[in-house]
Fold Glucose-6-phosphate 1-dehydrogenase.
Amino acid sequence: MPYAAHPVGTHPSTTASLGGIHVSSSASSLQVEAFDLVIFGGTGDLAIRKLLPAMYHRFAEGQIDRASRIIGIARAELNDASYRKIAREAVLKVDKNAPEQRLEAFLALIHYRSLDGRKDAGWSEFAKFIGEKPDNVRVFYLSTSPSLFVDLCQKLGKHKLNEGRARVVLEKPIGTDLGSADKINDDVAQVFDESQTYRIDHYLGKETVQNLLALRFGNALFEPLWNAEHIEHVQITVAETVGVGHRAGYYDDSGAMRDMIQNHILQLLCMVAMEPPSSMAPDAVRDEKLKVLRSLKPINAARTPQLTVRGQYRAGASEEGSVPGYEEELGHPSNTETFVAIKAEIANWRWAGVPFYLRTGKRLPERLSEIVVTYKSVPHSIFDQDAGALAQNRLVLRLQPDEGVKLWLTIKNPGPGGLKLRHVPLDMSFLEAFGGQLPDAYERLILDVVRGNPTLFMRRDEVEAAWRWADPILDAWTDSNEVPRPYTAGTWGPSASVALIERDGYTWNEEND
Ligand code: NAP
């Protein structure tokens, strides 16, 4: 049964088989201090689909003190009872067998207040309500359009809700370029200082991403080879099968570069490429990530056509059957890209000459997020030709679906018949290895905010450095007046994306079985 409730500190160990080896894991689920989690945008898609279920799961694990409150805020005229009904449905969607007693206990933590971020009415009463639990850590989660961030922060400041142990969580996107990101960050900083500001990138809360740190820095095996001398190239792919659907309006102002590359994919690149931090202290890790972002080779207008590909899907097929093109979904012509491929380079000693191929898109054939690190070929083959070709070692970190790690090795094909080489993966699916259900990234990240641990959140200077690299590419695309290359829904993007990597003698990873 997923998420069985256990008394704090008495979580059982699980044992599972990993290729015949038994692995034991013990979940550590220490209770966090009592908190008030205020979700602005409490009726929105993110809150209903992700944040409320995430809190329920942590509650079921015994991590949430019953003096805590989860308070949904939106303009809709709901009350505690009607919002609890919404929350109940949200939980039952992810755990249809949720025990009634536990569900009721969770719903008892939930409240709702109707407030408009742009109007004054109701804010004094809300501040009084928050003041009823002065000792609770206060987390203000801005799960609204970023255009409301400044108004909401000003209201929180006016009512002194930013004082004491108060924290604000900002959802992406933080701006649409460096200038607009600076403006949001400056305005938020008038009310919350940097140590109180948590810019969330849920990719950093994924098990595989944290595991990348454990793999790299917890094993003697990888780090000595983690450099340009031994690594040929790196690929980072975030592929979605869905189109833009009802989010077409939002997406058209954003596009794949702002929605995925500038934040999620660059954050993943940082985790792969950073130098070993001296510790897991928040600034130790973030300082190293920042150095990577600052070392990214700028892609100016002259290099943009060679190093980048942007595409937009046309009608085609997906798992749902035949699907319309982007412009048909949107209802008007558009130059917004739904696909991007980029060859990025990091100009430092460790990575000089190692290309990082980044790729993301909507309406691709598979929902897949992965990092593929390909090692160089061995310098000389001692094997006869009929032993078969030597393949390169590859480390594949899968973020979704089925989080896990695969290390491709060459071995001898078992049995008689001479020495034949075979390429096989050491394959670890976290779910298979450790059983149970992996926590969603939001579960980890929201509790990190309560604990006051910003290691897995983006610092302001990181966001700025990412925009400094992305802005010239976006400008070059706009100035070129070129339309995005069309690709048929259900394919891996425009053929130019294949050419981008094949020009260098490599291919996009397709070994996902
Ligand atoms: P959404 O479904 O459009 O929800 C917006 C929420 O904001 C609603 O609860 C809405 O309720 C409330 N709201 C709107 N105007 C308001 C106002 N003036 N005062 C107070 N509340 C107001 O948006 P979403 O998809 O949940 O996304 C929220 C944020 O998370 C966005 O920044 C988005 O980019 C980001 N994000 C979303 C996802 C996702 O999967 N959905 C993923 C990553 C990031 P009322 O209309 O009743 O006020």
Notes: Residues 308 and 342 are 4 Å apart (CA to CA). The longest strand covers residues 231-239.
